[in-house]
Structures are given as structure tokens and as C-alpha cells.
Write a structure and sequence with these properties.
Elements (H helix, E strand, L loop, with lengths): L7 H11 L7 H7 L4 E5 L2 E4 L4 E4 L2 H4 L8 H13 L12 H13 L4 E7 L2 H18 L7 E5 L8 H6 L3 H4 L9 E4 L4 H4 L5 H19 L4 E6 L15 H12 L2 E5 L13 H5 L5 E4 L11 E6 H10 L13 H16 L2 H19 L6 E7 L2 E6 L19 H11 L2 E2 L1 E3 L2 E4 L7 H25 L3
Parallel strand pairs: 3-13, 5-6, 5-7, 7-8, 8-9
Antiparallel strand pairs: 1-2, 2-3, 4-10, 9-10, 11-12, 12-15, 14-15
Helix pairs in contact: 1-2, 4-14, 5-14, 6-13, 10-11, 15-17, 16-17
Bound molecules: 4'-deoxy-4'-aminopyridoxal-5'-phosphate.
Length: about 475
């Protein structure tokens, strides 16, 4: 049977019968039926009922160059034809992997000259843990084992990735975190910063790192890892004072700084990497998603010279690697993707045109009765749904979380041609970097429409 002969109901029945989706209540989805996405072009998707959706989440924070880019398709086809796979284990390599390593060294900050390839962001962060601990072993400080991260951070779904992450509902399944990982609170002004300016709060939140280092013992801490802007946690943009102070504390105690750039890498924040936007000099940098714009899976770790030198000159064999480390097709697609980003000056466009326009749009949404705090950074943004806008600092009064107002809003978005994600009552977007200024305005109109529909719905339910 060809795909075109199946109806939406056929797909839903088959999906429910056989496919266990990530982060999903299987039974609830089986009852409801999945939405079947069939086709994409530029920033738009179409489902099997012919509905068009504005994909303001870039797939899953990854389709940075948008759908249907012929250069990436051609690169994959050509590489598959020539050499679909060869490994990089036994003293072998392939031209696309070498060329991508060279190009990554060029587009990343100057401390990065080496890359370790993986298949995903989670695998990249597993690599980070092994590499960080190996580094301190080689430095003669094997007791430096502990890696610090943040509550409500997201670093993947493998045992190590989920442990680094600070999602308590993930830890609750499977006995996590693994040993040697500890968390501090997130730099979320709305949650922890009452009575403080954002800048004051940023310094206080960074101070939690120092407190934790002193609690654990400075000679036991190996590294600190964080997302420059928390993505899955709800697009939480930290105060401007936060990251410089984190850098200062890492320097003071000599601990490695790891920037998880799986979402913020490759232009999302208006620079090539989020650490450039936030003003840090990480020793290691995890990437995935935007490196290929999600067209094929690829992830990895950029290894700064401080760590690379030790691993290379003193390390001997590093007992770690994946079948798909340096997959030639993935690397060929990444090369085409990064070259396209350069040709189309996508990073500069986000920094100078679409990013500032999106920031203005989100600021203007604050006049809506349902909108409290808004935040944006490059092409990622969030708005907080509130029951009332009282108070002077923009916090407003939250809804009862049990009402799941964010999900109500998300339903109106989906029903009206907009993919916007809900994290609790925080609505978030991260649209493709190819979007035009006109498309930012189109998106603004859709968001306002969906907020109006949500408001009417909540009024009808008597919730506002
Ligand atoms: N780190 C961050 C910051 C992420 O956002 C994600 C995925 N959303 C990951 C790591 C894990 O990446 P993957 O799903 O490719 O394993």
C-alpha cells in the first residue's frame, strides 16, 4: 500500500497500534489520535487533512533553515550515492567528517579547534560527562567527579542526559540522577526573584553556584553545565548579570564550564552560539539539532583547547564512541546547512532584523489581558499566561496549574494553524531562522488571534 491511499483515521489507528511516542501518555494519545504531519515547505507544515500550520517551533527547535532546502537534500543524495556509511573507529575517516570538523572549528569561538561527533544532543552530553571526568583523571585530580547543573534545565533523555537535566518528573522514573550530579536553582526571575531587579537577581542566582561548590567541596567539582537560554524549561532568558558571574565563579574555582548549545547553537540567539550572546568562554560545548537543521540526526561536543590538549597529549586511548560518530551523510548535510546559513546571512538576519522584530512583537503582546511576563532572545521567545495583570513588576497572578491553561491555549493554536508549545502556562516559540520580517508579523497576528480565542474560552468556562 502506498502512503497516499491511507486516510488520517488509518494512520491514527496504525500509530496507536504500534508506535510508542517520546514523552507521551500512550493510552491518552491512542484515544485522541495523533495529528499526522505529511509535508513541509519553508516555515509551514501540512497535515493529512490538508491543514496548513505555521511551525513556530522549527520542528523541535531544529529546522533552522526551514523545510524543503534543496542544497541539503542534494548533499544527502550525493553522499548516500558515493558512500552512505563508513565508521571513524579504526584509524579511518571520511571527507565529509573531516571537512565538517574544519568548518565547525571556523564558526565556533576561537578556543574550539576539535570536535567529537555523536548522534544526538543526549549522546553529546553523555560524551561531556565521560570527557570531563577523564580530563580530571589525567590532571591527577580524580576526586573531581561532580558535575553541577540546574533544576529545570534540559540536557537530554539518556541516563546521563536526564541526570544532568533538572526535570524532577524525569528523575522520578528510573532511579535518577546517576551518582556525581548535583543541581542548583534556575535563574528564573519570575520564580525566585520577587522584590529584586533582574540584574540583582542574576547575581544572586549565579551565587547559588558558588554556594554549591563550597557545599560539595571545591576540589570535588569537575564542571558546571547549562543552556545559555533554557529551552525546554520554558525559554527562560537569564538576567544579563547571570552568565558573566557564572564564568567568574568557574574561573575562580578552576572548574570546567560546559555550554549546552543544542538549542542555542547555529544562530538561534542572533550569534552563532549562545555563549557569544551571553558572554562566556566555555571549555566544552554540546551541539545537535541546528547543525543539520534536523534534516538528519547529528550531535557532538566541541572540545576547547584546555581539555583537548590534555586528552590528546596525555590521554592515550579514549574509550568512548558511537557507530554514527562522524556519519558521512549527516556530516555532508551539516556542511550544506552551515554553508547555506552563511550564504543567506541567517545569523546576521536574526541579530539585526527578525530578532529585534520578534522582540518588539512580544513586548507589544503585553497589552493583552492574558499576558504577563514576555521574554525573547534572537528567535526564541516566551509569554506567561496570567489570570490577572495586577502588580507593578509584570508578574501578574498565575492560574491554578491544575487548570492547564497552557494546554487550552495550545489547542487553540493547533486549531488555528499555529504550532506554539506550552510549558505549564508559558507559551513558547522558536521559529525557523529563514523567516522573513513579514512572516514575523504574520506570526504575531496568529498569536494574538489564538490569545483572543483562549481568553473567550476561559471566560466561557468562568476561569477569568
Ligand atoms: N540539550 C538540550 C539543551 C536540548 O534542548 C536537548 C533536546 N531538546 C538535548 C540536549 C537532547 O538532545 P536530543 O533530543 O537530540 O538527544
Amino acid at each position: 500500500m502506498t502512503t497516499t491511499t491511507r486516510t488520517t483515521a488509518d494512520w491514527q489507528a496504525l500509530d496507536a497500534a504500534h508506535f510508542l511516542h517520546p514523552f507521551t501518555d500512550f493510552q491518552a494519545l491512542a484515544k485522541k489520535g495523533s495529528r499526522i504531519i505529511e509535508r513541509g515547505e519553508n516555515v509551514y507544515l501540512w497535515d493529512t487533512d490538508g491543514h496548513r500550520l505555521f511551525d513556530a517551533m522549527s520542528g523541535l527547535w531544529c529546522v533552522n533553515v526551514g523545510y524543503g532546502q534543496q542544497a541539503l537534500i542534494d548533499a544527502a543524495t550525493a553522499q548516500m550515492t558515493k558512500l552512505p556509511f563508513y565508521n571513524s573507529f579504526f584509524q579511518t575517516t571520511t571527507p565529509p567528517a573531516v571537512e565538517l570538523a574544519e568548518l565547525l572549528a571556523e564558526v565556533t569561538p576561537p578556543q574550539f579547534k576539535h570536535v567529537f561527533f555523536a548522534g544526538s544532543g543526549s549522546e553529546g552530553n553523555d560524551t561531556v560527562i565521560r570527557m570531563v571526568r577523564r580530563y580530571w583523571d589525567l590532571k591527577g585530580q580524580p576526586e573531581r567527579q561532580v558535575i553541577l547543573s540546574r533544576w529545570n534545565g534540559y540536557h537530554g533523555s539518556t541516563m546521563a542526559g536526564a541526570s544532568l537535566g533538572g526535570m524532577k518528573y524525569m528523575h522520578a522514573q528510573g532511579g535518577l540522577p546517576i551518582p556525581g550530579i548535583d543541581h542548583i536553582d534556575q535563574p528564573h526571575w519570575l520564580e525566585h526573584g520577587a522584590g529584586m531587579t533582574r540584574d540583582e537577581f542574576g547575581l544572586k542566582a549565579a551565587g547559588w553556584l558558588e554556594q554549591k561548590i563550597l557545599e560539595v567541596g571545591p576540589d570535588k567539582v569537575a564542571a558546571f553545565i547549562g543552556e545559555p537560554v533554557q529551552g525546554a524549561g520554558g525559554v527562560i532568558v537569564p538576567p544579563a548579570t547571570y552568565w558573566p558571574e557564572i564564568q567568574r565563579i568557574c574561573d575562580q574555582y578552576g572548574i570546567l564550564l560546559v555550554s549546552d548549545e543544542v538549542i542555542t547553537g547555529f544562530g538561534r540567539t542572533g550569534n552563532w552560539f549562545g555563549c557569544e550572546t551571553m558572554g562566556t568562554r566555555p571549555d566544552l560545548m554540546t551541539f545537535a539539532k541546528g547543525v543539520t537543521s534536523g534534516y538528519v540526526p547529528l550531535g557532538g561536543v566541541m572540545v576547547g583547547e584546555r581539555v583537548a590538549k590534555v586528552l590528546i597529549e596525555q590521554g592515550g586511548e579514549f574509550e568512548h564512541g558511537y557507530t554514527y560518530s562522524g556519519h558521512p551523510v549527516a556530516c555532508a548535510v551539516a556542511l550544506a546547512n552551515i554553508r547555506l546559513m552563511r550564504e543567506q546571512r541567517l545569523v546576521e538576519r536574526v541579530r539585526d532584523e527578525t530578532g529585534p522584530r520578534l522582540a518588539a512583537v512580544f513586548e507589544s503582546l503585553r497589552d493583552h489581558p492574558l499576558v504577563g511576563e514576555t521574554q525573547s532572545c534572537g528567535l526564541m521567545a516566551a509569554l506567561q499566561l496570567v489570570r490577572a495583570k495586577d502588580g507593578t513588576d509584570g508578574r501578574g497572578t498565575p492560574f491554578d496549574p491544575a487548570l492547564e491553561v497552557g494546554m487550552v491555549c495550545r489547542g487553540h493554536c493547533f486549531g488555528n494553524g499555529l504550532v506554539m508549545r506550552a510549558v505549564g502556562d508559558r507559551m513558547i516559540i522558536a521559529p525557523p531562522l529563514v523567516m522573513t520580517v513579514e512572516q514575523v508579523d504574520e506570526l504575531a497576528g496568529l498569536i494574538r488571534l489564538c490569545l483572543d480565542l483562549t481568553l473567550a474560552d476561559l471566560q466561557a468556562r468562568g476561569w477569568v
